[in-house]
Specification:
Order of helices and strands: HEHHHEEHHHHHHEEHEHEH
Number of helices: 13
Strand content: 5-15%
Number of domains: 2
Number of strands: 7
Distance between the termini: 60 Å
Radius of gyration: 27 Å
Shape: elongated
CATH topology of the largest domain: Trna Endonuclease, Chain: A, domain 1
């Protein structure tokens, strides 16, 4: 008796170009379908795991649905699908003809044989793509997001390098500026008076939690290049907090924290926030500290409700 081979579960959402063939196959019944109807059959086609089916984009939209929508757009641009009504799609004769040739894949290269699609790709110069350069494997919106994230990571890495290379005094000013931009300490002038070298064991400074000074936060800042901050340093900081009958503290470093240090910080009564170098540079980027905006793009989508009778 033959033994059945278990189906391999895929944990990575396929790119939009790989979605085009199963989406067109789903539409091969000639009926009008809503986009949401394609989610399950496309996911089943790729044997996607439950986590892949639930994966979301940074803005919260479902990643698989997003790629199905882009696959639908490209198939429509090539004339393989039509939009008979808002939010729906239906296969065309051209789409049926393509399926009858039993293609192993439908991608941008195959669609370029259709003049409408070639004109669409070339006239839009999509994300700098030209006939001589490869077509992207991700949809334009994701390509824009990926490019932004890559540039952001480069900037955050450079921010951290600059902090490590700077003087201790500059690092202290940067910490103060960041806390102020995040809403702590009141004005920059107030924070400058409040935070400074207190000479008190494991505490480098004190800053108001709010502009009224109703509560204070104790700060420890270590400008280290490589060595991780260990549990003894956190214990020393916690001991200093207890000496001031304080419950809140922020430990900031340009380095990292050891696993033991992080686990210890979660088990104590005091509320201790650990900010390592990666988190620090991310916060600086988010709060526009040490960076300057040079250009912005507003990504828009069609407002289908406007066209709804």
């Amino acid at each position: 008796m033959a033994t059945s081979v278990p189906t391999k579960v895929i944990s990575v959402v396929p790119t939009y170009d790989k979605v085009m063939l199963p989406l067109l196959q789903f539409a091969s019944d000639g009926k009008e379908h809503r986009v949401a109807e394609a989610d399950l059959p496309v996911a089943d086609h790729f044997h996607l795991s439950s986590s892949a089916r639930a994966e979301t984009l940074p803005d919260g939209r479902n990643r698989l649905r997003h790629r199905i929508e882009w696959a639908r757009t490209y198939l429509k641009k090539a004339g393989l699908l039509a939009y008979p009504s808002r939010g729906s799609f239906k296969i065309t004769k051209r789409g049926l003809d393509v399926l009858s040739s039993k293609p192993s894949v439908i991608d941008n290269k195959l669609l370029m044989q259709f003049p409408e699609f070639a004109e669409f790709k070339h006239s839009k110069a999509e994300l700098g793509t030209t006939p001589e350069t490869p077509l992207p494997e991700v949809d334009p919106e994701e390509a824009l997001e990926n490019g932004y994230q890559a540039m952001r990571q480069d900037i955050e890495d450079e921010l951290l390098d600059r902090l490590k290379a700077g003087t201790p005094e500059f690092f202290e000013r940067a910490v103060v500026d960041l806390l102020v931009k995040m809403g702590y300490g009141g004005s920059r002038r107030d924070a400058g008076r409040a935070v400074g070298r207190t000479g008190d064991g494991g505490i480098d400074g004190i800053i108001n939690e709010d502009s009224l000074g109703l509560d204070v936060i104790y700060v420890q800042a270590k400008r280290w290049s490589e060595n991780p901050v260990g549990r003894p340093d956190i214990q020393k900081f916690v001991g200093a907090l207890q000496g001031h009958r304080a419950k809140k503290g922020v430990f900031i470093t340009t380095s990292t924290f050891s696993k033991d240090a992080r686990e210890y910080a979660t088990r104590i009564d005091s509320r201790i926030i650990l900010i390592d170098g990666s988190h620090l540079s991310t916060l600086m980027f988010q709060h526009d500290l040490g960076v300057t905006e040079v250009k912005s793009y507003r990504v828009k989508r069609l407002d289908s409700d406007y066209f709804d009778d």
